[in-house]
Design brief:
It is a single chain. By secondary structure, the protein is mostly helical. It folds into 2 domains: 60 residues, no CATH class; 61 residues, no CATH class. It is 58% helix and 3% strand. It contains 6 helices and 2 strands; from the N terminus they run ββαααααα. The protein has a two-stranded antiparallel sheet with strand order 1-2. Strand 1 and strand 2 form a beta hairpin. The longest helix is centred in the middle third of the chain and has 25 residues. Bound molecules: flavin-adenine dinucleotide. The site of flavin-adenine dinucleotide has 10 residues, from helix 1.
Length: 147
């Protein structure tokens, strides 16, 4: 199981956001949304604690894990099987129009990664697959958390 557990994203009075925090999508390489969203989370925590005698910026790391962690973990999961099993992926997307559309929507940012895993599970034909990397990829799909 892939769990995204970023290291502490705070130290003393400093918070790290965006690329510096390693939050770019590992599959698409896109990081503008993550930079802006993590900056918003940082602002949320700072605004809440601005008058505290002893601020606790650890809340920021927790917030990033909670709000961004599941989708990033799924992006890591897709990255892990997509490239080593590119032959399988190509065949799947070629044969299953619905999966191809779903993958495009995920890449466009219109659907979360979990939607792709769910779409794969709804294709019984995927359970019949050859060995090697392909089989590992299928196991990854089947074991992925449901959206
Ligand atoms: C070629 C390329 C194409 C990309 N295309 C896309 C895309 O289409 N969509 C997408 O979502 N993402 C894309 N990305 C990724 C995206 O650019 C980054 O994920 C995003 O810019 C991260 O924002 P950031 O604010 O975290 O970091 P940055 O945008 O890198 O900003 C960090 C800033 O800090 C400054 N800096 C660094 N060190 C210091 C210092 N010591 N003192 C002061 N300033 C400092 C830097 O000069 C920089 O201006 C692309 C990246 C590359 C390289």
């Amino acid at each position: 199981m892939v769990i995204y557990e970023p290291a502490d994203l705070h130290a003393g009075p400093t918070l790290v956001v965006g690329d510096a925090a390693g939050l770019a999508d590992p599959f698409t390489g896109e990081g503008i949304y993550a930079a802006l969203y993590s900056a918003c989370l940082a602002a949320e925590v700072i605004a809440e604690q601005v008058n505290w005698q002893v601020p606790d910026l650890g809340g920021y790391t927790s917030l990033v894990r909670e709000r961004m962690g599941p989708e990033l973990a799924n992006a890591f999961r897709v990255t892990r099987w997509f490239f080593p099993a590119s032959g399988l992926v190509h065949r799947l997307l070629h044969r299953h129009q619905g999966l191809a559309t779903c993958m495009l929507q995920v890449i466009a940012g219109d659907l979360p990664y979990t939607s792709f895993f769910d779409a794969c599970r709804n294709q019984p034909a995927l359970l019949f697959c050859p060995g090697g990397h392909d089989r590992t990829a299928i196991f990854e799909i089947v074991r992925a958390p449901r959206g």
